[in-house]
Design a protein that fits this description.
Distance between the termini: 69 Å
Helix content: over 70%
Largest sheet: none
Length: 186
Amino acid sequence: MITELERMDMLRLSNAEANKITKDCLKKAMGRLLREKDFQKISITELVTLAGVSRTAFYRNYDSKEALLEDVSATVRKAVADAILSLRNAEQASEQERILMGIFQELRMNSTDLVWLLDIGRSLMSHEQIEALVNAEDEKTQYLNAACLSAVLGIMTRWLKTGMNASPEEMGSICCKLLRTMRGAN
């Protein structure tokens, strides 16, 4: 026999799972609608109808469609920042190239969300994430880190926006060569 407290804990877990499903459905609906129309023309009614959730469920999770968009942006930006951070910590060129290939494979798998975020003027990383990654003890290294990061983000953005014709392996190799060249010129 379960206690009332245990039953409430089970319900909370169920509510958390339900909220996650609701958020996932709303994010997918936002992505689909953004491929069809301008963000400003998307209504909450369209979002909830396409997502298959109620307006109440929407407002339980988000204050506005802008908050939903920011949630999607934050999720994508964190994934990109985490991947690039692992690149920064890689010591050997072969490890860097492997990480870069993995980043491009991940970008390809999530290209639908990434492309519409880019289309509405969002970047792959926030200013704060970029600042955290370029941080170094001396100013010269900070500038070099900023240049390397900007170059890689620019390549990623161009690759996504131009249809990802080159393979993730090719893109990883291109970025790795670029980074070696930039670091070697130091």
